């Protein structure tokens, strides 16, 4: 059992705290929004009055925030949270942010002798709820091993990507590739349907052939092909298009930083940008299928 | 045991004939190029003097040609080959051609009471050699079942896509999607490497996450990540870029025919077109990785 | 004064006939739709009962139809119209169709000793009404010169592009480029506006710099920058997005025919395809600006 | 006559200094590289020993540097150059950098009561040499008017884009659009040539039609169409592809900052990135034409 300070109670944070509690950890939670904390009302976790309270005397601090600006503000901003964290505490940031932000905060933590890892997740809200998240970790391997039992309380895989920031890089490379094959799958399915093929039959064929990919296998974007995926529920739930859009923006930022060329990634970013501007920001990202319909 | 007339002895045709022979079938072969026939010199198959000879008194005719023009010329051209095929013979065209060509030839065959299916393959030269091809079939299901034992002599899967031409449509949908995730995988790997990640580590992470796809799983384009793939042999062997380019042209033709929108597929077509024009036409299609290198 | 048979009374055909009449020519018109002919009720031109009637005993036949299929059907279809046209008559097809269709029909006409030119137009409905069209001509230069006075009755420029079909190729090259700089202009204007710039100021700057192009100069897509353009009238009137979409499809067909690589053109085709599927097919093509709005 | 401190003696800076001198101004120059200063050996301008010397007691400071990092380092870095500039001096930064950098430096200057404008240029080395540059200005209009006579010594147009940073935004919007129509023109020309058209004839047709744009009009990328452009000199001279690549990276940075969607701009960035990685970074940007050749 560990004592954990958990910061950030959004759609991901709440089920993650739930799983930490279920696995016997003592959790102290905080969020800037009282309404967010209220979502945990019935769960016997400590509702801290401030971030500072939540991080006092804990074994681990976990943060799950929506942006690099929020992470920088939390740890480096006015409240100087790092000054309130003991060097014995391991800080785990699970937010998806830029590698630059991750490196910056880890470096500032290091100045105060605080160990920190970046551990963004793959798996979405469903994965957070089922406790089947994948954590992609940047930082010292030894720190990752120390964090592993805690992370395994919330997920299934913990993988080391490299140094500080590498978890973030691997995460956005993955999500850029995901966006590319999701759109590619949607186009291929529609092209087949436009030629009279049954999308189920075509999906099965491509899954047994070289077109196979995660989008097609577990998250088919064409309505009616798979049960229990967002495509079957008017694209409600799942991983919102605006979050994919955010990750693609991070990917493009990363590509600019190293002058990497990513034509498919850039086109995916454009298409999700247009999709969101068109009123689909809250729909699951597989709703890109709708664009190709006649 | 069946008697089979096999037309077209290219890189795919030769190993396919080999596997038919190994599985006990009697094969009569023909190719317009004597040099192609010479490749089968040592194999005790009948070298026919003409396509007409090869298709006389056989249970099945199989054709494996490089283009729709070649297929139309063979069956509908000057030699009027269809007039030399018995209605008892089932014609199996394994070439990758446009759905329009496939439908046209099948319709002309039907006028002469000859049953025909389109059965383009997935799996490449390696699949042809190992006898592990996937056949994607368009035409009557009963005809496919009749052809199944023959096809299973050369492959592992036989899947029904729909009516005449549907095999072709499914094949090019699949290959368009393959091109999309191959390029996407190459971009993602290079983006990670540019940020200091190890391509093996990043590949493993994405294979256990939502970026997973066939290119990454069985055909990693980054040199040094997987043994025994073209990326490890200077992109020699495998599925040539010019063949992917051809399939993408077929996909774009299909998209124009139905006014389908395929932004990712169109970009993939442009990138493979540029890649081939740049002198890489003979390299394996995973060589697209080279373009992204710094 | 010439005697002219005019076939095809759509949005372009009607004002073209008007200008022919105004310039003193004797015009015999026909359209498959009686309603189309009715639009010319008050104009003292001969309403023929059939295409055959319209082309009998004329100096020139002019056709202005919506597609290659329509042109092939008119000249080569069941009514065998070419058999009803005298070798003394010069046939001018002003439709925008594929080069292949244009060549085919011209070749069939040549078999009957009938001279034909392809003369697609640039300038849209406004140009047809003002008599300021540009004709881009493929075929014999001598035939173009013979046609010139007639074409100048409807336009301002007559330019020779090359052999039969070359008029069509030049037209679609031009329109592909137009689509590219229209979208590019829309993106650049929105990017500036998103950063707080005044779209008028930015337009002026780019018009005096290297970003200058026809879209920006005469057809600014950002509402409020120029008076009397579709952007100022909710994108009503002008050149409909679906017509641009059609021309981009022709451009892609042409690119496939010669295995030319056109990444920008292909992306433009995708974006106009999505735009039309999204309910904007009837709006002027500068309405692509709307997609980029926040 | 004014006294001017000029910092940055690259390919642009040297001819700009030349023109300032020719127009009777007293110029004090500095560059971090002695070799750069040496290029002005024969010109009777003052070679300062440091940036601080160059900016002492002058009416204007002009900087022309290769990147935002260089500009920030110059004005805000270790030497604290702003502390050595009198509030009576007007600072004109002609570098092409991000709007963020431009705003930051201007704000820091304002803290020291120093007026500053951003005035990036359009026109390239040729424009710098001929004194025909266009200056696109961000900052106070009054400051621009004060700078106008100096700028007109080096150019032909001075245009106000808006507030601090707006000059940079307008410049990169323009250059993004330029890249888009340059590539579009190259594609259209090659598509025509692939269909047998003469590139001169096609260029003339498009220049009189709606495809018209600056690239086609003054900088035709197809070899042999225009004299005295880089296309006629193996793409030597002119505006290097790597500089276009840099500007497109700035455009993408700007698009990410405001979450603007620029599909054409993003594709242009990818294509120039690939072009540069392929060994063409030093060639004029119209060399993108080469990629489309068969």
Query: What are the secondary-structure elements of chain A, in order, as H or E?
Result: EHEHEHEHEHEEHEHEHHHHH
Counted by DSSP, the helix tally of chain A is 12
Secondary structure class of chain A reads: alpha/beta
Hey, which two chains have the biggest interface? Answer: A-B, 71 and 71 residues
Taken together, the total number of domains of chain A comes to 2
Distance between the termini of chain A: 55 Å
What share of the residues of chain A lie within helices?
40-55%
Low-confidence runs of at least 5 consecutive residues of chain A = none
**How big a fraction of the residues of chain A is strand?**
5-15%
For the record, the CATH architecture of the largest domain in chain A stands as 3-Layer(aba) Sandwich
Query: What radius of gyration of chain A results from the CA coordinates?
Result: 20 Å
CATH class of the largest domain in chain A, please? Alpha Beta
Determine the CATH superfamily of the largest domain in chain A: NAD(P)-binding Rossmann-like Domain
The main sheet of chain A comes to: 6 strands, parallel
Strand order of the largest sheet of chain A: 3-2-1-4-5-6
Quaternary organisation: homotetramer
What's the CATH topology name of the largest domain in chain A?
Rossmann fold
């Amino acid at each position: 059992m560990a004592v954990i300070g958990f910061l950030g109670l959004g759609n991901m944070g709440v089920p993650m705290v739930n799983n930490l509690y279920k696995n016997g950890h003592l959790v102290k939670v905080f969020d800037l929004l009282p309404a967010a904390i209220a979502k945990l009302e019935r769960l016997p976790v400590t509702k801290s009055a401030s971030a500072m309270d939540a991080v006092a005397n804990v074994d681990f601090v976990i943060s799950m925030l929506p942006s690099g600006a929020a992470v920088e503000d939390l740890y480096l901003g006015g409240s100087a949270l790092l000054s309130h964290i003991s060097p014995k505490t391991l800080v785990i940031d699970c937010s998806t942010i830029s590698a630059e932000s991750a490196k910056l905060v880890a470096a500032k933590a290091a100045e105060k002798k605080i160990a920190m890892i970046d551990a963004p997740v793959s798996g979405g809200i469903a994965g957070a709820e089922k406790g089947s998240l994948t954590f992609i970790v940047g930082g010292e391997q030894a720190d990752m091993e120390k964090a592993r039992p805690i992370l395994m309380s919330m997920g299934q895989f913990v993988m080391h990507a490299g140094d500080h920031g590498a978890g973030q890089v691997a995460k956005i490379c993955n999500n850029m590739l995901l966006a590319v094959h999701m759109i590619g799958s949607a186009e291929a399915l529609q092209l087949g349907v436009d030629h009279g093929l049954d999308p189920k039959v075509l999906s099965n064929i491509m899954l047994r052939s070289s077109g196979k990919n995660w989008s097609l296998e577990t998250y088919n974007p064409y309505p009616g092909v798979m049960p229990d995926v967002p495509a079957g529920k008017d694209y409600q739930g799942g991983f919102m298009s605006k979050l994919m859009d955010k990750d693609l923006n991070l990917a493009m930022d990363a590509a600019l930083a190293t002058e990497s060329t990513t034509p498919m990634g850039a086109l995916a970013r454009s298409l999700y940008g247009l999709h969101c501007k068109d009123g689909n920001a809250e729909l699951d990202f597989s709703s890109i299928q709708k664009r190709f319909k006649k």
